[in-house]
Structures are given as C-alpha cells and as structure tokens.
Predict the 3D structure of the following.
Amino acid sequence: MGILIYTESENGKFKKSAYELASYGRAIADQLGVELIAVSFNHEDATQLGSYGVDQVIQINDPSLESFTAQQYASNLATIAQTKEIKLIVLSSSANAKYIAPLLAVSLSAGYASNVVGLPESLEPLTVKRSCFTNKAFNTCTLDNKVNIIGLSNNSYGSFENPKEVNFSQASAVIAETTIKVEQVEKSSGEVSIADADIVVSGGRGLKGPEHWHLIENLATTLGAATACSKPVSDMGWRPHSEHVGQTGKPVASNLYIAIGVSGAIQHLAGINSSKVKVVINNDPEAPFFKAADYGVIGDAFEVVPELIEKLKAFKSS
Amino acid sequence: MKILVCISHVPDTTSKINFVEGDTLFDKNGVQFVINPNDEFGLTRAVWFQQKQQAEVTVITVGDASCEPTLRKCLAIGANRAFRVDLQPSDGFEVAQQLSAHCKEENYDLIIAGRESIDYNGAMVPGMLSALLGYNFVTNCMALEIAGGTAKASREIDGGIETVSCELPLVIGAQKGLVEEKDLIIPNMRGIMQARQKSLSVLTPVESDAKSSISKYEKPAPKGEVKLVEPDQIDQLIDLLHYEAKVI
Ligand SMILES: Cc1cc2nc3c(=O)[nH]c(=O)nc-3n(C[C@H](O)[C@H](O)[C@H](O)COP(=O)(O)OP(=O)(O)OC[C@H]3O[C@@H](n4cnc5c(N)ncnc54)[C@H](O)[C@@H]3O)c2cc1C
C-alpha cells in the first residue's frame, strides 16, 4: 500500500520537483488514507521532505548509484515498490525520470501516463488528465491496472508545506545487469536549466545575431532565469541546440516566459504554452505571439530590453 | 549491422488540433500526416550508417493502411524495406509489444525510435521496447557512433550532456542533435521511384493489451486579451508582473 515518489536531487539538494511530488503525493495519500513514501538516492539529509508531507523516506546510499543509469535506478525503485506493495508511483518530468518511467512500467507490469497536469479525476479506476499534441490539447485517460505510474508535468501542481513526522530508513542497493557505462557528464555550470527554471528568457531571430545575446543573458541574470531561443536561432548556430524550445525542441513550463524578437510560430508556441505567464517584446504588432501572450510590449528589443534590465535592477534593489 | 527505425505517423506541426464525436476522437479532416520529427532524425542517422557502415535499414510502424504513404516516404529517404503491423494501437505499451514481437524474430543490432511522438507525447515506446527485449537503452540521444559492436552515445540531460558507452543490441530514443538539420533528406525523384519497388509488408498483429485508454480530449481554455504596455512605460510591466501576475 502507500504511494511512492522518487525524489531527485542535485549537488546534495533536492530539486524543486521533489517538493512538488511530495505535495502532490500527499494530496492523493490523504484521499486514500495511505502513507506517502519517498525514495532518495545518495542523499544524506532528507529531513526537508517531511516539511512537504512525506511520511517515510527510504534512502539508498551506494557508490554503485553514483552516476545515474536508468536501468539501475529503475531496478531499485521496482524492488521497493514490490516490497512495499505500492499501487501508485509518482515521478517528475525530468529527463532522468522520463528515462526511468517506461523501464519501471514494464518491470512492474504497470500502466504509465506521462505529462499529467493535475490531481487524478478519479482514483478507482485511476483517471488522469495529461497534455498531448505538444500542449495543443489534453486527454483524459484511465489506467485500470494493479500498479500505475504517473509522470507529473513539472510546475503543474506546485508545492505546499505540510509538516509530518518522518520515519527514515535505509535500503541496500540492488545491482541491475547493464553494460551501459557513463563516460562523462558535462554540466553547463552555474546556469539554471530550462527544465528547472522558474523564469525563462528567450530570444528569436529579431535579435539579428549572436553578438546581441548579451541582452538576453543580462536580462536572464537579473531575473535568475534560464536562457532559451527559437529554432532558427539554434539552427544558425547563434545559440547551442540545448536552448532550442518549442515543438521540436524542449518544452517550457516555467512560471514566466519572456519572448524577445520571437514571432510566435505555432511550433514555437506549442512548446512554451504550459508556461503560466507569457510576455512578448516585438516591434511588429501583427506578430502572432501577441495572441498567445499575457503581457506585451510593441517596441524595438534593442531599446526595450536595456530599459527593462535597468528598471528591474532598481526594482530588485528597492 | 541490422537497424530498425520505428516510425510514428503524426499530424504535421502546423496542424490545427480538433476533436470530433463528442471530443472522443482526433479530427483527421484536412490534416497532413508526416514522419514524427524525432523519428526522422533517427531515420536520417540510420541512413548514414547504411551509407558509411553498410547497415541495412528497416522501418516499421504500427497502424492502419493510412500510414503507408509515411512508410513509402521513409523508403524514399533511403530505408531498405518497410513493415506495417496492421493494428490501431490504443497506447504506447501496445505499440511496444507489437514491435517487440517483430524484433524477437529479426534480432536487430540497433533499434531507433523517436524519444517521443508529437501527437501523444507519451515518451514510452522506446523504453518499454528495450525493457521487453532486455536490450540496452539510451534516450534523448543526440549523438551516436558505433564501432565493433560497441556504441558511444550522448544523452541530453537537464542542463547538460552525458556520454555513455554500451554494447549492442541497443534501443535509442532519438531527438534533435542526432543529425544536423541540414542533413535531413528530402526525397528526390529517383528515391521516390525506387521506393515504389521496395518491399512494404503487412504483418498480422500479435496478441497485445493496452494499459491505458483515452476517454476524452479537450483543448486549452481560450486565452484572454494580451495587456499591452507602452515601450516608455516599462515600470508598468514590472508592476504587472509583480503585483498582478506575482511571478517576479
Ligand atoms: C517541422 C517544424 C518544426 C518546428 N519546430 C520549431 C520549434 O520547436 N521551435 C521554434 O521556435 N520554431 C520551430 N519551427 C520554426 C517556426 O515555424 C518558426 O520559423 C520559428 O519559430 C521562427 O523563429 P523566430 O520567431 O525567432 O523568427 P522570425 O519568425 O523571423 O521572427 C522574428 C521576430 O522578431 C521580430 N523583430 C525583428 N526585429 C525586432 C526588433 N528590433 N525588436 C523586436 N522584435 C523584432 C519580428 O517582428 C519577428 O516577429 C518549426 C518549423 C517546422 C516546419
């Protein structure tokens, strides 16, 4: 029984999504009257999870889990799910969680719904709403299986403090057969990733060339935001591919998305639509982005952005 | 080397998404279908292996006869042969089961599927297929080299890139970066003519079961009007973002 969440951490700190999963799992656990169990890997101090409603934390600390391999992590989660007779597992939408989920689903013969955007509409049978057609629509889907897995869209539920008395335990790692060897991990240091960012500042072809990207970067730094770009900008090599957002690039589900010199083509909008608040800065009042945005400035980016940076700095220091 | 590329037949990225029959069915009316973009990156890389490393490239889809033009296009791009499993699948798990049955007969060295499709965005097929077959799996794959039965692959992670090595057989979830945009192949007349001669076989589905079912679709609520701020009143934008939207 109970609900299992996989709480991810980075550099010894839980990711924001860990608290969101805890809050989400708590709400379902309360409806079902069951325990909320979190699993963490190689994380020393997990006390904070208790503040967000977790009843039990199972810690697996083992050198074999030092670098992430999906097969290894999935086997460990599956073992715990089996011993605890878990019926529902909730994962985040991080790259790693989406890597694990289908492996876990097969090993537990579980149903899996990714991109779930809110609490289940029903728990018996499990019925959830998920986004599809790259954010252009939603579908309601029923998972009528003994075990099910929900992949929760990042930032779709939020996190809420709800202190609980936490019970900690350690489990030993199981070793899965895999010939996959992690050779190298390159992290763009110091920057916020698009997946984890609260705010994303994005630039399009309207910025005219890579030499003007200091505008985007300065604005992002001022806001503690991640930087992103439209597809042609990465295709032309002005920015790295990892910054390309949209239907064929990365999805964005931030609280605030600021698009500068981006026209708002359907493929771009599809990928960023689940951001909560959208701001557009564009000198063409006819740009389609104005139809998708919450706030807009019709103006020249080269004038508006420096002004915005100045004013924001003043605002932040006041 | 035997490569299988799993193809999803999806609405073109510019399609208007609508539903019919009381919002229970996707409206295909007037929609143009294409190779799922992530699958196309994979197919392009597969054709590269065919040209540079004498690989044989097979494409497969699980779907009804309306998917065949998409498979013909894959043949025109360069695949050697095509299969269609004659089934309207209910979910990604069902697709994975059908593909796995075919793969068990063929023993492919490398299986490429898009990391997710742009219609259902399930991100389940490649991973589930690898688990059903007991093969290695690397998703979000943005670079792949193969030499002497060993693969070296890069995977995009949140805020970085991870490089892994592993043995074949391998399933990858392909995505942007695996090939350059300019390397995508637009079929020429010769390719299109040759594609007509290549084999496209229809397979009878094996028994399979879905683990989820869709009961209803809906579109996002229509958005309110944009609030415009004059370029010389940027303070107002900051106020709106702080007090009204509460995002800064
Ligand atoms: C299959 C397919 C998939 C695609 N997937 C994606 C995707 O995932 N992501 C994506 O982004 N695109 C995607 N596209 C491309 C998409 O159709 C558009 O071409 C692209 O989004 C346009 O990029 P842009 O807005 O930067 O450039 P443009 O459309 O050229 O727009 C530039 C904008 O900048 C404005 N501008 C110019 N000068 C200034 C100035 N001084 N100040 C302020 N504004 C200025 C202009 O008014 C214009 O609106 C895809 C296309 C296809 C066919």
